[in-house]
Design goal:
6 helices, mainly alpha, 185 residues, two-stranded antiparallel ribbon
Length: 185
Amino acid sequence: MAFLLGVLTFTPWNILLAHFQVIEYPNPAYLGIASWTPWAFGAMVVIVVSIFTGMDRLFHTNESYAPATMAFEYLLLAGFYLGVLFFRSYPYLLSLTLLIVMLVRLIFFHRPWDLLFFIFGISVGPTVELVLTNLHLYSFSEPDFLGMPLWLALVWGLVAMSLRRVAWVLFPSDRPSHPLALKIG
């Protein structure tokens, strides 16, 4: 299920990024993206959701997230990508906007360990992007730093927080949040 979510969530957005020339593939196979792209997104979500589920169990967090509210996470993801499409020529404004979204999310919609997962996203996501761009598998049309845009790390951090919540839906925890917690009712 995570693989399918990765393919169906990130491939269309990547097609839009390629169409609007935010990213460019040297040998696009269809709709401006490489043939390996959907497979990579599917594998990425499987790996990330598995890591996040393990990390949540390690930290003894017991979060639940209703499948119906996963639409909120998809709207956020769509907002991130639409922001990139509309403000790609204004990287500082886009970065500031994403920073504000991150602060609002951490202040008002905070869950235990969210900041750690955000840091994981801003660290690992751009690192993988750096490797892939240095292998010349694709490139960014308006790079700012190390061949990548400034806003990319913030997007990856916010995506990591959303994928953590997706992991709660895919792998719900039925354990109490604390070993001494009692179930009442």
